[in-house]
Amino acid sequence: MTYKKLPILLKPVLALDVEFIEASVLFSLKPISPLGDIDPDRGVINDPESNVKGENVARKILVTPYFRGSTVGPYILFALYRKKQAPSMIVVERIDPMLITGCVISKIPLYKAKNILSFKELSGLKVKITRNGEVYVRERSISSS
Amino acid sequence: MYLTSVEEKMLNGEEGEAVSIAMKVLVKVGEALGAEKLIPIAHAHVSGISYLNIRDPGLEFIEYLSRTGAKVKVYSTLNPSSFDSELIELFNLTHEEIEKQVRIINALIKMGFDPTLTCTPYYLRKPKKGEHLAWGESSAVAYANIVLGARTNKEGGPLALFAALTGRTYYAGLHIEENRIPRIYVKVKTNIDNAVKAGLLGYYVGEISRGRVAFIEAKFPRSEMMMKSFSAALATSSDNPLAIIDGISPETSLLNKDYIEEAISVDDSDLREVMARLSAIRRNKISMFFIGCPHLGLKELEYVYDVLSRQGVKEKIILSTSKFIYNVAEKKGLINKLKELGVIVIKDTCPIVSRLKIEGAIKTNSVKAAFYIRRLHGLEVVLDDL
What we know:
The complex is a heterodimer.
Chain A: E1 3-9, E2 11-14, E3 20-27, H1 34-37, E4 61-63, H2 73-82, E5 89-92, H3 97-106, E6 110-112, E7 126-130, E8 134-138, H4 139-144
Parallel strand pairs in A: 3-4, 4-5, 5-6
Antiparallel strand pairs in A: 1-8, 2-6, 3-7, 7-8
Helix pairs in contact in A: 2-3
Chain B: H1 5-11, H2 17-32, E1 38-40, E2 43-46, H3 51-67, E3 75-78, H4 95-110, E4 134-135, H5 138-146, H6 159-166, E5 168-170, E6 184-188, H7 195-209, E7 214-217, H8 224-237, E8 243-245, E9 262-266, H9 268-278, E10 286-296, H10 298-311, E11 317-321, H11 323-331, H12 334-340, E12 344-347, E13 361-364, H13 367-377, E14 381-383
Parallel strand pairs in B: 2-3, 2-4, 6-7, 6-9, 7-8, 10-11, 10-13, 11-12, 13-14
Antiparallel strand pairs in B: 1-5
């Protein structure tokens, strides 16, 4: 399997504890409120206005501009983690105390991107992200996309 | 971030999994906010106690922490819950909701929290000027900063819980003196002479200050009810829970004209405009008058009794306070006197975080309550003083 390195460098906020992960990208253009937008039992996005409504966040690289909403948000991420429905990684443009809290207690690696729009065309594709924030995509994924 | 050797040990899990998670959250949040170190706190106060707010995910997380055997490291208190166990008939809750609320409280008490459930932790332990706290109830945070000159940020979600388990918080925001210096000067050209007006002023200042600390020149009496009303309303409309009131706040010496970016004046018409937005037009019949947001202190209970015994009680009145103040008032015979007037006193809960059986509209003297009851419960709310 060959990989192409993309011109994206993510900044680790809560770095991976392994060398890299490989997972599908779930790109939500609309900021996510864990309380209300994600089903805490099944991990499904149920925001009717979301471009990824009905998609599951479980084991995905969840990319969105930022998280919003209630201070219950961290508990929702924890519920996903306990039910093994948590994303493998979260990538955002803006971090906030509630998101950091949620990711720490749910053991979700958190990375910052300068501009998440560079992930838009990667939505649904498998990408590899290294601990220091380098992003790779499978060559075959690009040609078949 | 610089950590002491004790803090390093907590982070590395030498004091158990819960303390390690708590430390990691504090360090990461602190780093994100530019903090160079952690600081010891004297008192943690945790919000998000009501099962109606945090539901199963919150219950599960709190029980998980409790099961690890984690204990609080400093004096730690809790916000109100969703019902008063001695007046359960007033609340519209299922058996399951009550059972889960009890589980949340029991898990927290097992961790060493004071069992009183109140938004007025300053009556349980009065913070000193300059003391560092990690509090998570916005009205209490504002009161501690504004009226007592203590230092606390508004710690949302489980952050105050993590501060309780480590005895630390991150050194950022309102813990740093420079961030407490007023940047906007507000001259109030109307007398602040009741709790509603104090609340409207707090709400207005919170809106116009846009995150900056305001210095307030006003005829503002040292009335407990008015200071609490102002603080709670300011924290409702602003994410920066500090203002400095001339003649009230202990930190008036922080005023330095070189730092003032804007000066504005407030008159009656500004407060009437806020009133028009927050106080609903009466489509429904008012079903009760609610007083006690924030929870009433002893002097306020005495004041309310004094007014009601002179005016007479013409409508259903519900007061809310903490179990701590209730017990003191009961020993003084005050609770019985209020009951004789037909007044209901609920404790350790309030209409915002609970689900009271209410039909129609609510009247209250609290701007904060007016804001949240309408949004959270869809009820009409009318602002009025005693």
